[in-house]
Amino acid sequence: MEKNTDSTGKSAGSKKEHSGGLMLQELSKTYGARRVVDRVTLTVEAGSLHAILGPSGSGKSTLLRLIAGIESTSGGTIRLFGEDITRKAARDRGVTMVFQHYSLFPNYSVQENIGYGLRVKKWPSQKAAQKIEELLHLVRLEPLAKARPDELSGGEMQRVAIARALAVDPSLLLMDEPLSNLDAHLRGALREQIRRIQRETNVTVLLVTHDQEEALEIADAISVMNEGKILQTGAPATVY
User: Fold this and answer.
1) What would the pLDDT profile of 91-134 be if each residue is shown by its tens digit?
2) Positive or negative CA dihedral for 90, 93, 98, 104?
3) Residue 177 Cα to chain centre, angstroms
4) What is the pLDDT, as a whole number, of residue 90?
5) Do the beta carbons of residue 2 and residue 134 sit within 8 Å?
6) Is the predicted pLDDT of residue 4 greater than 60, yes or no?
7) Other C-beta atoms within 10 Å of 101: how many?
8) CA atoms within 13 A on the CB side of 151
9) pTM for the full model?
10) Tell me: the pLDDT tens digits for 128-174?
């Protein structure tokens, strides 16, 4: 996939290749007296797919929203490839997110949905078109480029959402229960697709799930979370 270049001609993704990944230090979120994320310290290695596994209400999705900048933190720091992004606006963090419910624009085609972020960032039309073609190929949706979301299966819609999130070359891709709305057959197929896409792009991914099988099959590392705390982190073979 093509990378943006800066004024020096270096790849905008070069820092992703030469420095650490995501580092959370004592990250917390409270609502009144309730601490939903409780002093979480965690490292996600660059170029890895890291899963956070825990039951509903354990604080997983809130943790992602803190990292994305959708919600403000109550304490702690977020560093991404060495840069403190704790107080940065969401749009300036280099972080994109794939949601459980796809969040596609219903009146846009597949290719228009994928290219939305490129239009917002005012990419030149020819360069944006090339990027969209690359992403359609990556997620294997070239034949459906002009289809609308209501013509797609759940798995196809989620692949569109992944391509849209990757379009702006994020430093970090967050995935919030991306498979939970799919039936068992589609979940298995899309697990394989997510793993393939992550390996081909080498993007750093933090994925949250309540599904133990999903975490064990897809992740390079797993953190177990409950009641706002990270209880255990390790390679899949060592966590269970």
Assistant:
1) 999 999 998 888 899 999 999 999 999 999 999 999 999 999 99
2) positive
3) 10
4) 94
5) yes
6) no
7) 12
8) 11
9) 0.88
10) 999 999 999 999 999 999 999 999 998 899 999 999 999 999 999 99
Task: Considering only residues 187 and 71, tell me which one the structure prediction assigns the higher pLDDT.
Answer: 71
Considering only CA atoms, which of 62, 53, 54 is closest in space to residue 31?
62
Secondary-structure class of domain 18-94+170-239 per CATH: alpha beta
Where in the chain do CATH 3.40.50.300 domains reside? 18-94+170-239
The residue whose two tokens read 């379009």 is: 167
Rounded distance between C-alpha atoms, residue 218 and residue 15, angstroms? 25
Q: Which residue has the higher pLDDT, 16 or 50?
A: 50
How many whole angstroms separate alpha carbon 176 and alpha carbon 216?
16
Report how far Cα 215 is from the mean position of its chain's Cα atoms: 15
Look at residue 17 and tell me whether its pLDDT is greater than 60. no
Q: How many CA atoms lie within 13 A of 139 on its CB side?
A: 26
